[in-house]
Amino acid sequence: MSDEILAKLKEAIETQDIEMAKEWTQKGIDEGMPVKDIIQEGLASGMEKVGDQFEKAEIYLPEVMMAADAMEECMELLRPVLEETGEESGQKATVVIATVEGDIHEIGKKVVASMLRGNGYEVVDLGRDIPVDDFVQAVKDSDADIVGASALMSTTMPEQKRIQQAVEPLGVKTIYGGAPVTQEWVDEDVGGNAYAPNAAAAVKALDEII
């Protein structure tokens, strides 16, 4: 039964079927399956396939967002079980992510957050137009391992430098992205640990630096 549940969960995420995903997540809970297995071998496995398809341009942003929504709905069902049982969800690391102050663009950052969740990361998404001090406070509050900051306009890119300077003393790793952001900017100007041009690259980059 558990193999069938995992296969159905993977299929539901790949096909962006929210109701199917919730139905089989609940079946997994009812069967007493470890939440870690439901997340990693079912939901995350499907999200990984979605990421691969997105990277190859086989599917597009709306499909990714729908798959991410399906996964998030399932996580809402699983969180009370985790709290009740004290079971570890098998998260790789905790990531604080946001769009920098002065920048209201959010879709790309949301996709990155969803892809990270789908690949085993605990994500604290602060939203958009977030000042440096809020990044610092979120790291302290969540005991985060990684900070990710997106800048979608060249005028807001300097905020990434300020974030780096503020969080570096806290001992966290950092990753930066956004349309005008480049590897050279992150390496030479910001001093960050990683650069990601898209959501799939963000997952791979974080897997390498944690």
From TrEMBL:
It holds the Pfam family B12-binding. Residues 92-210 form the B12-binding domain. This is Trimethylamine corrinoid protein MtbC1. GO terms for molecular function: cobalamin binding; metal ion binding; methionine synthase activity. The keyword Cytoplasm does not apply. PANTHER family: METHIONINE SYNTHASE. InterPro entries: Cbl-bd_cap (IPR003759), Cobalamin-bd (IPR006158), Cobalamin-bd_sf (IPR036724), Met_Synthase/Corrinoid (IPR050554), Meth_synthase_dom (IPR036594). It comes from Methanonatronarchaeum thermophilum.
